[in-house]
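QA checklist item 7 of 12: single-chain prediction sanity check.
[x] sequence parsed
[x] length recorded as 117
[x] structure emitted
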Amino acid sequence: MSDFNDPTTPEEVDNLLDRLVFTDEPVDLPVVVGQDVDAALKPRSVKMTDDMYRRAGNRAVNLGMSVSAYLRSLIERDLVQVAHEGSPVAQLSRIAAELSRAAAELDHTATELGRTA
């Protein structure tokens, strides 16, 4: 998969190549374990448009999540909602979760606006 900062035009690729410094020095790269590494998780293919994937990726980044984690959270939330649709506790939990997400998004937006001001 592609990162949202990957070059997408010939000019962007040229700019990237101009910034690279090639050496023969060996590099010791650490093993990076991401938030999606879990023995129970299996890769799945989900078809979506490029625009939807880009928008989901932007939303996931704003929430500090990977696209996979974001999509899992949406599915989990929907499955919980269906399982407990009539429960008042579930309704309150959904409202609290929505308020929490809205507050996090407002906080992130305020932080971003503060950086640009």
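[x] summary fact logged: Residues 81 and 87 are 9 Å apart (CA to CA).
[ ] second reviewer sign-off
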